[in-house]
Predict the 3D structure of the following.
Amino acid sequence: MKKMTNRLALAALVLMTASLTLIGCQNNAGLQVQHDPYNIETNNQVTDYKFGNKLIVSQIIGDISGGLHNGNVVIKNTTKSSMNLQYQFTWYDQNNREMDIDGSAWTPITVYAKNQKTLSSIAPNPTATQFRVSIRELNATKVFKTNLLGIK
Amino acid sequence: MKIFTLITLSFILALTAGCASKVQYGDAQAVETVDITFGSTDLQQIAGKMADSLLAFPPMVKITQQKRPTLLVDRIKNKTTEHIDTESVTDTIVNKLLRSGQYRFVDMSNIDAIRKQLNYQATGGLVDPAKAAKIGKQTGAEYMIYGNLSSIEKSNKKEKDVYYKFTLKLVNLESGILEWQDEKEIRKNVSRSLFGL
């Protein structure tokens, strides 16, 4: 009887391990992407230009090309490892009204260690004169992390 | 026997915990990384890059300062192995270009319905001829937009990598000159470990 019980227990253990393995391999899409939203405004109101101590906004340039404003923001990764980030440009008119109330798309970007990248956007139409850039960390872009139960 | 009961209970608990689900609205503009296939973020990145590139291209800026050129969108060839709605990509590009106020478009996707309506107005006998839209007054496109989307996929046991390249071209219909071309590259990869740890 004891031998039978041990066999059943062993079979259950094997089945459970196999099941947990399958659960552990599932694609955990519920990404927790943002921790510290960070905003920059071009109208000389740069309040905080450091993303922790990891990212520095070194240049903010706004110019006009073909009647449309063009926004460029240069960011520099000061760390010794690559940073996976996402950014979003939001454009406003002269009266500080947001041009696209649905918002513009967040764009993923990788900035390599000790390297810099330029983020750029062209105003949606000629009435847009100011922009704001939001930058935040992007997690789990490459590796889907799960615990044994597929929840994290 | 107690060990057996404990293991069975743990097994049931593990299964039920993994089945919990909840429905909620998300941000349509958020970065999407559900899987490695072509997704909304790819579409938005491509459309944003292409529209911005065309709007900032100096020779076209020079033309748009004098007039609003009329464009026609031809199809985007999907050379990837995935089913991708490339019309949705061009629709977003057209949206951005139209909203800029720099370009106009002729819509050939609904030309049969337009022709039917014009014929109805001209010959149906129900529309006041003075107020009917005239046949033969449409504006012809000066430029045509077309392009292609291709991909290269590589994988091994631990990793899968996909590289997308979207190329868009603008050709002058009268002269046949390729006035503008740009491309957007996207690389996505996924790696998995056995237990996801």
Q: What stands out?
A: DSSP finds one helix and eight strands in chain A.
